[in-house]
Amino acid sequence: MNAPANRADGIRAARLDFAGYAAAFADAHPPLTQAQALIEAERCYYCHDAPCAKACPTGIDIPAFIARIAQGNERGAARTILEANPLGGICARVCPTEVLCEEACVRNTNEEKPVEIGLLQRHATDAFFASGGAPLFTRAPATGKRVAVVGAGPAGLACAHGLARRGHDVALFDMRPKLGGLNEYGLATYKTTGGFVQQEIDWLLSIGGITPRSNQQLGRDFTLDSLLASHDAVFLGLGLAGVNALGIAEPQAEGLRNAVDFIADLRQAAADGDFSRVPVGRRVLVIGGGMTAVDAAVQARKLGAEQVTIAYRRGQESMPASDVEQRWAQTNGVTIRPWSAPRELLCENGQVRGMRFAATGMQDGKLAETGETFVIEADMVLKAIGQSHEPEPVGTSIQLKDGRIVTDAEGQTSVPRVWAGGDCRAGGRDLTVEAVEHGKVAAASIHSALMAKH
Asked: Would the pTM count as exceeding 0.85?
């Protein structure tokens, strides 16, 4: 294909000035004011056996914390939230509340507008983290038991906190320089402004008994067997380190990137206050339909890309990203192109030039190609078609299903003294809040097992 005009202005950094970046990456959903929070809290019916609480994967007593906000007791509200979900602050920002607690709100029946549970949860946790004061929780007397937690994402952090509260000594290993996992490296910057992720982690570690060990990778710096030899139990919160392939030839070419790496670069640039160092294409194409695809696409647009397209092989109603996320993408100038199956990455002189697609549709209830093809021009293509667990570091002894670790309801694996949770665990929904629940439940299970032996 012929290269489009003005291709010299392809991938480059510093498309905006400082003020432009500051405006583009400001908080996407500003917090409620005190007055707004009180008004919203009064909308709650404070249901008995509330459906919203049942819909929350961590079982937060939602009517109870909202009632405390209505009473002006933000600290009490925060305690109710963080008792059930030790990462309740970040979950208030990134969880798809519109399809969890808020979808279950009984206000939907009569008013078609639920109580703004996510914003109220953020209001309470923000107020607590801003106020300081006495700790909410104290650590139980030391048990003398040592537990290794591998992976400092939501599951690992929740597990470490639960174990430390019960008096166990926790070694928290992570392969990256900073703790947080996808919370630190995989979320859109406009969702977690002001360094909130590390602020919440600092609070979580303040319980004591948790020793972070960064830049330590399973399979490279230690093995599962070595951890079992030096610890009483192990929790694996490894996340999903692999990135799925497009299913077509992927030649080495400038402009072809994994969306998760693009987002990670943005996150760390934000931490340093320098968005200008992150290069972006003039025309960006994102392959995928989940939240990662939306985050990558919107941020590419905010970095100054002129044209950003999300291509998805099925209909838009089948996209894993929620309707709210899809509308957010479109509001920010992203085009969503459904029924588009990648067929050929187009390159010229080692540079991405676009992608050829096959048009798809449903035939006899199955996805099929229609025979039509088309090209979307791009100088940057971001792959966001899902991630996969890399089983090699954990060895062959742990039972896997579809490439992920098999556990029972409490997170115990097929290997004695080893638990697992989060995205690496089979059967999950890849939600931050669900990963937190995995870690929380596993911590209770590990504690019971250790104390029974003791």
From this structure: yes
